[in-house]
């Protein structure tokens, strides 16, 4: 069973409306047939607002993506079930796959907590406050200023705490990361790797990883080649190096996967789509026990999912 904490399927569906791409076997990195074949159990679907959209357009775009999630992911595939809690996952039948909505960046809510509450009522259960740049909530990982949470960002985290929603730190700059770690009750890193292995601004430094571990959180190792090494191309062995490093920091119980499938142009050799998770799993079994592999693939994220 696989719990994948991040993909951008909804963005692809938004950019190609009416394509029916999620039903096709090979049109996306993640499709319904691939989830079935690859033994997917829980897949998180991100709402990411294209940067060219202006204020006043962004929430509408989020609503369109939510609509696509319900109609193209859930309604057309009876075995795909909306989940919003750990109990929902536990209720899944053996042949059912859980689908959970997430928000990547506060742009969609347009400085309006009412819009965030609407997204919550529609199923959003994990929220990243930024993408790579600054917004009304905080500065992202590539923003030169590197500022922490704004007042609105603090208000968002308070809302997420009250609703028992994950606060995703993956795209935050360092100062904002530490602000979130001080204030969030349910922090995760949905798709980030280890900075000491690959010094990309989107990766987490050792003290950040250790802070997540101390908070009993989890980080999703991601399959983005520039986050795996500096060569520009990557192999499954690179994924293993990041896992091993997090384990060396005491993170065996805090490692998951957040593929970022359909949010990347280049893929890891042997990990070009969801169905190739098998290649990663086979490699994991060469280095880790059955129990450890199960924790990485499913248990660690599942155990942190609020009830």
Description:
The chain has 307 residues and is α/β, with parallel strands linked by helices. Helices cover 39% and strands 13% of the residues. The protein is built from 12 helices and 9 strands. Strands 1, 2, 3, 4, 5, 6 and 7 form a 7-stranded parallel β-sheet that branches. Helix 5 links the parallel strand 4 and strand 5. Helix 1 packs across helix 3. The model has no long low-confidence stretch (mean pLDDT 97).
Summarize this entry quickly.
With 307 residues, the chain is α/β, with parallel strands linked by helices. It has helices at residues 9-15, 32-37, 58-75, 86-90, 113-121, 151-162, 174-183, 206-214, 225-228, 236-248, 277-287, 290-304, and strands at 2-4, 40-48, 80-82, 97-104, 124-128, 166-168, 187-188, 219-221, 255-257.
Number of strands: 9
User: What is the beta-strand fraction?
Assistant: 5-15%
**How are helices and strands ordered from N to C?**
EHHEHEHEHEHEHEHEHHEHH
What is the averaged pLDDT score?
A: 97
Q: What is the radius of gyration computed over CA atoms, rounded to a whole number of angstroms?
A: 18 Å
């Amino acid at each position: 069973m696989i719990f994948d904490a991040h993909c951008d399927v909804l963005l692809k569906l938004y950019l190609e409306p009416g394509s029916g791409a999620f039903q096709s076997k090979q049109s996306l990195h993640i499709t319904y047939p691939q989830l079935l074949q690859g033994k997917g159990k829980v897949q998180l679907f991100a709402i990411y607002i294209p940067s060219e959209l202006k204020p006043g357009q962004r929430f509408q775009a989020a609503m369109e993506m939510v609509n696509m999630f319900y109609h193209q992911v859930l309604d057309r595939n009876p075995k795909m079930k909306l989940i919003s809690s750990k109990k929902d996952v536990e209720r899944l039948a053996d042949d059912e796959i859980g689908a959970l909505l997430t928000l990547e960046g506060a742009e969609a809510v347009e400085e309006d907590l009412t819009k965030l509450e609407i997204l919550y009522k529609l199923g959003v259960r994990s929220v990243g406050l930024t993408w790579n740049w600054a917004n009304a909530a905080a500065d992202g990982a590539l923003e030169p200023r590197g500022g922490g949470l704004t007042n609105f960002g603090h208000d968002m985290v308070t809302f997420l705490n009250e609703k028992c929603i994950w606060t995703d730190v993956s795209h935050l700059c360092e100062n904002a990361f530490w602000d979130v770690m001080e204030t969030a009750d349910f922090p995760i890193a949905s798709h980030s790797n280890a900075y000491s292995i690959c010094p990309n601004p989107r990766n987490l430094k050792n003290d950040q990883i250790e802070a997540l571990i101390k908070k009993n959180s989890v980080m999703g190792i991601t399959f983005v080649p520039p986050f795996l090494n500096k060569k520009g191309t990557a192999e499954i062995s690179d994924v293993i190096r990041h896992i091993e490093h997090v384990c060396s920091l005491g993170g065996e119980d805090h490692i998951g996967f957040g593929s970022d499938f359909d949010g990347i142009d280049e893929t890891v050799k042997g990990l070009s789509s969801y169905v190739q998770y098998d290649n990663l799993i086979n490699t994991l079994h060469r280095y880790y026990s059955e129990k450890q592999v199960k924790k990485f693939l499913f248990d660690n994220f599942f155990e942190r999912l609020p009830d």
